[in-house]
Amino acid sequence: MTEEPLEDLYYHFIKVAAELTGAGYDAMEISAVMTKVALQIYKTKLSDVDYNKMVDYISQSRNEIEPFTFDVPLQ
Length: 75
Known about the structure:
The chain is an all-alpha fold and 75 residues long. The chain is built from three helices and no strands. It has helices spanning 5-22, 27-45, 48-60. The protein is globular.
């Protein structure tokens, strides 16, 4: 495990995505489900105003997102 909790979580999710892909699930389906769950968590934990700010921030960050790769250490 890494020192940083968010980095540790990131690697856990990469591992889950890799396992699901290896089990035959389509990468687009995996990402759709992960996105839906993330948005549901935001909707549950944030106020309506903060939820809308988060969705706007995500949308505005579209050009900063790097392509996905499994070339990370699967811890």
